[in-house]
Amino acid sequence: MTATRPASNADHDELASFGYKQELDRSLGKFSSFAAGFSYISILTGVFQLFGFGFAFGGPAYWWTWPIVFLGQFLVGMCFAEMAGQFPLAGSVYQWSKQVARPLTSWMAGWIILIGAIVTVAAVAVAYQVILPQISDTFEFVGGSADVGSYLTPDGAKNAVVLALLLVVFTTVINMIGVKVMAIINNVGVAIELVGATVLVILLAFHITRSPAIIMHTNGTGDGRTWGYFGAFLIAGLASCYIFYGFDTAGSLAEETNNPRKHAPSAILRALGAAAVLGALLILFAFMSMPNIERANVIKAIGTLGLPYVVKAVLGNGVGDIFLVCSAIAITVCALAVHTAGIRIMFTMARDGRLPFGSRVARVSGKSRTPIVPAIVIGVLTVVLLLVNIGNQRVFYVLTSVAIILFYIAYMCVTGPLLLRRFKGEWPRKNHGPYFSMGPFGTFVNVVAVLYQTAVVINLAWPRPDVYGSDHWYFQYGAFVFVGGIVVIGGIYYFTTLHNKTSEVLAEHRALPAAPAEELGAAASDGELGAAPA
User: Fold this and answer.
1) What is the phi/psi pair of residue 502, to 5°?
2) CA distances from residue 9 to 4, 32, 142, 258, 259 in whole angstroms, order as listed
3) What is the pTM of this model?
4) 464, 426 Cβ separation under 8 angstroms
5) pLDDT tens digits, residue range 309-328?
């Protein structure tokens, strides 16, 4: 679990082959790389947070959205694993898109995922409201007993923002201190989450009262819907989609990881695999062990209070609170990991001269060896986003849906151009080397991954009142309004500032390419493989 290991000169030289000098603290090992991806996915954050939503809209049969979303994202993860092995650079999605796509596409990838990271920090931080007040009503600073554990009441929504603000301040301070402290906290948190989730699964298994056939029950959630249960199932799928993203974080910390070409690809896939197994068992055993799950009052309670209610009902308040504490820790390190990944995106884009005030934004603190300005900017913007939505009872669902859509679009800025490279016979590259490769299955995996991503974006963006509300049109069409606004703003900035301007590493961050670059599997010294249609 050690976060610090001596950096290799070979890693430094390899980074120089891409045109960058080593500035960040390269001290993360194999477990830290895995922990970064796993904590972003965070089973004890996402499942505790959205179990109630999935159950309310899909009944126990919503469980089937879990393996479907996992398989789709695992295909995306395999594409990312190839990229991580070839381009071990901070900023993951932005840098990967930069290598295989046109400049506009890579700019949009970085811009969209940066905004997505800010929205995700807010969405994760709001999850405190589901957990902390159910541990102790002392954490219900706003409202009363009727608001405990819920962000669907006016005061519950306000309290959710209050708790979220405290968490954002914490993640900002820790990220300013440096990656070593962040990694230690993250590693400990992930270890607690892994042990906690495993023990919880075992304890729920000992309390099973019914067969796995429960996950075939829909609770009549499709009644009255135009598409019947399929329509309800598509809505319930949001619960699983929200959890399975952010696994690229292992690649985003490549410049702080020892031997990243080896560790980052496996970390991405191991994080997805571990989350899939633990999450599937946790949801399944929760349904199999919950007493009186068919009663109307129990169905309503689960839909409102989610998995915390199930855990306490099955294991009792005392034992249940222990696992709620584990979940609170998981939420903390999840928000920390999301904040950290966003910082690396902002840093690497600024270092390439793709953001305003690039020199100041990309400046690395001599003491902490971490970018201070991006940590503060992301923290401040997250706070503003939370304050704007204070009292909005739909704040969590809107933030969640928009965050997922932004990430899926940014991910497609990698998988789409990569697929075009494959069709043109330009991927894998001749100098791919011994690093992760899908071999002859690459094109098939890539095609299915892109089709899956497209379907999910359409499903999540659909203006359903159940998700976005119908009291204001700009909420109901929130995905189109918010995402469209982000794309338009990004496009205006690109065409007025960056169009026809070559991406060039700022002088203070530049290093001469290490020789021989070809043997290192590097791209050209400017980090580009060349223009590609995207």
Assistant:
1) -70, 135
2) 16, 20, 53, 10, 10
3) 0.89
4) no
5) 999 999 999 999 999 999 99
